[in-house]
Amino acid sequence: MILLVTGGSASGKSEYAENRALQMAKEGQRPLIYLAAMMPFGKDAEKRIERHRQLRAGKGFETVERYTDIEALCNGEDREAEAFRNKAKGAVVMLECMSNLTANEMFSGSSSDDNLSENSHIQEDTVQNAGTEEEPAADIRSVQDRIMKGIDALADTAAHLIIVSINVFEEGMQQYDPWTRAYIQCLGELNQMLTKRADEAVEVVYSIPVAYKEDVRCSH
């Protein structure tokens, strides 16, 4: 089962996702894995990471940090992948957050790594400008393909997968540089793909969950 949880910054989406994960784990007596995609860039990012750690403290989550290439984490032949498969098999896995994973896949490892900076307007934790070129170097379609393959691999490995993603259009339409526009397009389209792939999709608005795709298995 795949649950997509979206919402704006500080909407309460993480807390809702964690509570749903706890419920799923309790019902099936399953372990909990928190798959963290946020890179600890700067003091603000470190504060956010610490806040999330405190929120899930004592709830039984085992944290696994993975910033890119989720498919390799699930299907690779190295020790890290083998260890993750053993942990995730039959578990409830919560991936947080798609905004970070998307930025990592678009910009990490590129020639623009040294220019990464936080963008609090578009996403909670990652980049605004990843370079100074006129157009982004990242291939949006290839980024989306890598991420969706990773999601498929996670879904095949875990019993339940919860994906947290930010509503990239929450901040409204503004004038952004080409890098940020490419990021907005990539994440916005990924949210659409994830909605189609998910069994259930919920948007959290001021801590109130609003279902916009319900699991048909629960409606009978």
What features would you describe in this structure?
With 220 residues, this protein is an alpha/beta fold. It has one domain: P-loop containing nucleotide triphosphate hydrolases (Rossmann fold, 3-Layer(aba) Sandwich), CATH 3.40.50.300. It is 43% helix and 18% strand. The chain has helices at residues 13-28, 42-56, 70-75, 79-88, 98-107, 140-157, 178-197, and strands at 2-7, 32-36, 61-65, 92-96, 160-166, 200-205, 208-213. The protein has a seven-stranded mixed β-sheet, sandwiched between helices. The model is unreliable at 110-133 (pLDDT under 50).
Could you name the key traits of this structure?
alpha/beta; Rossmann fold; seven-stranded mixed beta sheet; 7 helices; globular
Major sheet attributes: 7 strands, mixed
CATH superfamily: P-loop containing nucleotide triphosphate hydrolases
Give the strand content: 15-25%
**Uncertain regions: pLDDT < 50 for 5+ in a row?**
110-133
Rough outline: globular
Please bin the fraction of helical residues.
40-55%
**Alpha plus pi helix count:** 7
Total DSSP E strands: 7
Radius of gyration from the alpha-carbon trace, in angstroms: 17 Å
User: What is the average of the pLDDT values?
Assistant: 83
Instruction: Using the 3D structure, state the CATH architecture.
Output: 3-Layer(aba) Sandwich
Q: Regarding CATH, which class? A: Alpha Beta
> How many discrete structural domains?
1
Quaternary structure classification: single chain
Task: Tell me the span between the first and last alpha carbons.
Answer: 16 Å
The secondary-structure element order is: EHEHEHHEHHEHEE
Class from helix and strand fractions: alpha/beta
Taking strands numbered 1, 2, ... along the chain, how are they ordered across the largest sheet? 3-2-4-5-1-6-7
Briefly note the CATH topology name. Rossmann fold
